[in-house]
Write a structure and sequence with these properties.
It is a single chain. The protein is mainly α and 147 residues long. It has a domain of 45 residues. The protein contains 4 helices and no strands. This is Unconventional myosin-Vb.
Length: 147
């Protein structure tokens, strides 16, 4: 019973916080609407030439703000691109190092590692029973299974 009362109080508190946030949002919207109404009334009192000029000024302000937002987004994307290019260089270096190390490994050992990788992959997928291998690797596979 106490648990239910606590849950009910938590829900009531969350609901009250939501209502308060929504009220604040409505108040902010009302203020914005009043500002726009005042601007419209002032515009209507102006001469037609002044109305056009005021409209142009409003549009210039809007486009300037939009332009600033786009510049900020562009900067973020450029930073992300640089970061990704650095990561790509690091991974390319790792791949080259790995390929170079694989080139120095004797071919029999490389085949053994390939067979071991297949076995590990199958183990991760929880397969049982079947194993795929090359016919020429059969003696090596048998020797590895025995040891």
């Amino acid at each position: 019973l106490r648990l239910l009362e606590a849950q009910l109080q938590d829900q009531r508190r969350e609901h009250e916080e939501e209502v308060e946030a929504l009220k604040n949002q409505v108040d902010a919207m009302k203020e914005e609407m009043e500002k726009q109404q005042q601007a419209c009334l002032q515009t209507l009192q102006l001469s037609p030439e002044a109305q056009v000029e005021f409209g142009l000024q409003q549009e210039i302000t809007r486009l300037t703000n939009e332009n600033l937002d786009l510049k900020e987004l562009l900067e973020k994307l450029e930073k992300n691109e640089k970061k990704l290019k650095k990561q790509l260089k690091i991974y390319m270096k790792k791949v080259q190092d790995f390929e170079a190390s694989q080139a120095t490994v004797p071919s029999e050992r490389r085949r053994h590692e390939r067979n071991m990788q297949v076995a590990v992959q199958r183990k991760e997928k929880d397969f049982q029973g079947m194993l795929e291998y090359y016919k020429e690797d059969e003696p090596l596979l048998i020797r590895n299974l025995v040891t």
